[in-house]
Amino acid sequence: AMIGKGNHAHFMMKEIFEQPAVIGETLNAYFNPASRTITIPNLPWDWNDLSRVTIIACGSSYYAAMVAKYWFEQVARLPVEIDIASEFRYREAPMPDGGMALFISQSGETADTLAALRYCKQAGQHIASILNVSESSMARESDIVFPTLAGPEIGVASTKAFTCQLVTLACLAIHAGVARGAIDHADEARLSSAITKVPEMATEILNNDATIRALAENIHEARDVLYIGRGLDYPIALEGALKLKEISYIHAEGYAAGELKHGPIALVDKDVPIIVIAPSGALFDKTASNLQQVSARGGRVIFLSDRDGIAAVGHDASAVVELPKADPFVTPILYAIPVQLLAYHVAIMKGTDVDQPRNLAKSVTVE
Ligand code: G6P
């Protein structure tokens, strides 16, 4: 069937606004609300037999892998190695006996990711994939597929597929954590109920779209934009910068907040907007001090945080976006949304082709 844009001017915006629904559907596939447990199909491996997991992807899917590393290591005490498929496939990495390799891809067709999958298969790994397109090359060559139920994604820049990948990865990390005895049922219930609140919070963020559109006014003339975040929110800084450069053609870089002093702070002046992604939580004070270092040097800080974070250091920012206060476990899923919206509105102001940015392809099937 033909897929339309609904009430939206672009597929990308339609797909951003679908997120509350498709995040909910993806969660329903892996979470049983009656028992408050994660339920996934029988696995070809035992989580207790794994010494580490290897996760491989490209583009935004790779940033989902980065978030997953934090989740698996924290929640399941399972070491995770992540790599970009185009690097992994040529570096002849030694693989653990009976290991598991997990591939993340919206399309299931990205050439480098598929080649990396084949390498891991040769190396005797269990092959698992998180895919949005279930009839795809990676689906056919995997031992097990965890679908993301985002529905067809048409916009070249990934949005809803990315947040659904995160939901699936969060469920897998919880499942591994229980199986390995790293967390108990009470933790499982708490973490999964934090995910169940995401759709409603995502709706709240989308209802605040006008605030983000107003901020875009201050960004669309910038030449460079920096994004910083820490821990689980560091990959969202990378994703925010990627979204902006993909569709608005503004140079943007994502940095781990702690790396600011090792280079990017040299760029700070009144013309470089710095998007600080810092929900309140364990690492908040560290990122807040980075924010203050930037504003003390005349930097233009746009601060994405919650009520508590804004009460603490909001006065040091040029602009704030208040997001709902969430369990720190799920903040990467939520904070992905304002950075998508920001990139979208900046691109509209610049008049670029949002759904089909120049030089980019939805699925990179040739190297
Ligand atoms: C392209 C798309 C990105 C996507 C990446 C990986 O670069 O423009 O949005 O993240 O490919 O694609 P995949 O289908 O493997 O997730």
TrEMBL record:
Active site, UniProt feature: 362
Domain SIS: residue ranges: 39-182, 215-357
GO CC, alphabetical: cytosol
GO terms assigned for molecular function: carbohydrate derivative binding; glutamine-fructose-6-phosphate transaminase (isomerizing) activity
Leader sequence residues: none
Keywords from the UniProt entry: Aminotransferase, Cytoplasm, Glutamine amidotransferase, Repeat, Transferase
Catalyzed chemical reaction(s): D-fructose 6-phosphate + L-glutamine = D-glucosamine 6-phosphate + L-glutamate
Enzyme class (EC, first level): transferase
EC number: 2.6.1.16
Subunit structure: Homodimer.
Task performed by this protein: Catalyzes the first step in hexosamine metabolism, converting fructose-6P into glucosamine-6P using glutamine as a nitrogen source.
Protein name: Glutamine--fructose-6-phosphate aminotransferase [isomerizing]
Organism: Oceanibacterium hippocampi
Lineage: Bacteria, Pseudomonadati, Pseudomonadota, Alphaproteobacteria, Sneathiellales
Gene encoding the protein: nodM_2
Residue range from the parent sequence: 241 to 607 of 607
